[in-house]
Every structure is written in C-alpha cells, then in structure tokens.
Amino acid sequence: MCGVERLSPHICRLFLDPATALYYHPGQFINLRRFDGLTRSYSLASVPRRDALVEIHVKRLPSGRMSH
Ligand SMILES: Cc1cc2nc3c(=O)[nH]c(=O)nc-3n(C[C@H](O)[C@H](O)[C@H](O)COP(=O)(O)OP(=O)(O)OC[C@H]3O[C@@H](n4cnc5c(N)ncnc54)[C@H](O)[C@@H]3O)c2cc1C
How many domains are there within the chain? Predict the structure, then answer.
C-alpha cells in the first residue's frame, strides 16, 4: 500500500502500487491476501490506463477482520 485517505468515518480510499503491471477493465475486482492468508475481494475504483496506482474503497465493518 502506498497511500490511504479517509473519505468518511467508515470508508477509506487506499492506493496500491502493484509489484507487476496490472491490466484490468472497469467493473473488475481484486483479491487481497493478508500475511496470514485471509483473503477479501475489493472493487477497483481507479481508471485503467489512466491511473498509475490501483485504487480501492474499503468500508470498515464492525469487527471486520480485513476491513478493520
Ligand atoms: C466481488 C466483490 C467486491 C467487493 N468490493 C468491495 C469494495 O469495493 N469495498 C468494500 O469495502 N468491500 C467490498 N467487498 C466486500 C469485502 O470483500 C469484504 O467482505 C469486506 O471488506 C468485509 O471483510 P472483513 O474481513 O472486514 O469482514 P468479516 O470479518 O468477514 O466480517 C465481519 C462481520 O461483518 C459481517 N459482514 C460481512 N460482509 C458484510 C457486508 N457486506 N455488510 C454487512 N455486514 C457484513 C459478517 O457477517 C461479520 O459479522 C467486495 C466483495 C466482493 C465479493
């Protein structure tokens, strides 16, 4: 992760810098895997071929293991 910005009390915008080039289309999502293997899907909010960084918006859920 290379940036985080709070959009509201429960939603954060995260900027990710993929280790390798990522080719995607609007509407696609990525699976993020944590160090312990926990994996969750997040919709891509960035614009393919325009944005250098990959952007996702994460809503924090009460006791959410990944989103917290
Ligand atoms: C294709 C796809 C795209 C997704 N895109 C996004 C995205 O762009 N942004 C985003 O924030 N999330 C997105 N999600 C949801 C995301 O993958 C996680 O499920 C979410 O972040 C919760 O994970 P967690 O580990 O924090 O919560 P968990 O630890 O798995 O769950 C914590 C508690 O919250 C409850 N819970 C789980 N999901 C929800 C929900 N949706 N609403 C209410 N309660 C819930 C659980 O039952 C549990 O009680 C997407 C899911 C899919 C399948």
Answer: 1
